[in-house]
Amino acid sequence: MTSAGKFGRLRLQAFGAVVLICVQAGLGMFVNLFVTIPKHHPGSNPSEFFSGSARSVLWAIGHGAIALTIHVVLGLLLALMVIGVVASAISIGRRAVLIWSVLGALGTIGAGFTGAGFLDFNEAVSSYFMTLLALASLLCFAVVVYLPRESTPPVSSTQPSVPPTQPH
To answer: N or C of the chain: less Cβ packing under 10 Å?
Structure first.
């Protein structure tokens, strides 16, 4: 595939991440406002974060309200999607594209971990940080969408910005 084709595919992937993050933010607001997560469920208040969070996520998928289940499943799919964005950015080999893609992926995956923390401990601060990380990743992927196809060298002050005119 050509460099332009790879970059076009990456832009579509990044735009898909932007759209899915927006959907996730809307679902997350709905869950936060209208779904009650019980204080005691498998995985709640764990002594060890990762195993407790895994149990909380499995509980949410299998026994949570439908909005919570959709939010969790889409979040897991989004994590896979942003890893794919980073893989595409690596194949392009442009530093700016890779940096913004990695930052977006880290924000998205970080939002997922804080979401798992919200399931575990049901504290508003987790929801707040999940939102901040999601918005940061949204911004990063929007930058990827709007980066120019090819990096162009800046015009130096010694080079004229307008070609000289030829005498007639």
So the answer is: C
